[in-house]
């Protein structure tokens, strides 16, 4: 079930800058919007997000935004690229070719998604 109340972004563009590089004015605007989007993805897909620490939430949304911002328009949609010049060649495979905002498996685990939890159910109704 998703939250209907708006949630403040878990980080600000300054937090992205601390983890990556100084952003231009246009990048700051983009990062601010993406931080809102990344926050909403966590709220919508991670039911136990409120149990995570503020630092964990900040770290994860910043990582999501940096992954997204690393993909430029020239490489959007490219999964593999190869260049050859004479006897030299190089090949690249892009990790996020569509420039998606996404949570990695490790980030989901930090937010309690897919982590098994034990519980006890008294089938005798409390009597012994």
TrEMBL record:
Superkingdom to which the source organism belongs: Bacteria
Pfam families: Phage_Gp19
Protein name: Phage protein
Native organism: Bifidobacterium oedipodis
């Amino acid at each position: 079930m998703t939250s209907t109340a708006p949630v403040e972004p878990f980080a600000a563009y300054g937090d992205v800058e601390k983890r990556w590089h100084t952003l231009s004015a246009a990048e700051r605007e983009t990062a601010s919007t993406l931080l809102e989007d990344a926050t909403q993805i966590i709220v919508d897909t991670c039911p136990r997000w409120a149990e995570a620490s503020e630092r964990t939430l900040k770290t994860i949304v910043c990582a999501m935004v940096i992954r997204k911002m690393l993909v430029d328009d020239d490489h959007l949609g490219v999964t593999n690229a190869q260049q050859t010049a004479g006897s030299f060649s190089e090949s690249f495979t892009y990790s996020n070719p569509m420039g998606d905002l996404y949570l990695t498996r490790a980030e989901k685990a930090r937010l309690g998604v897919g982590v098994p939890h034990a519980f006890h159910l008294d089938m005798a109704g409390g009597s012994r």
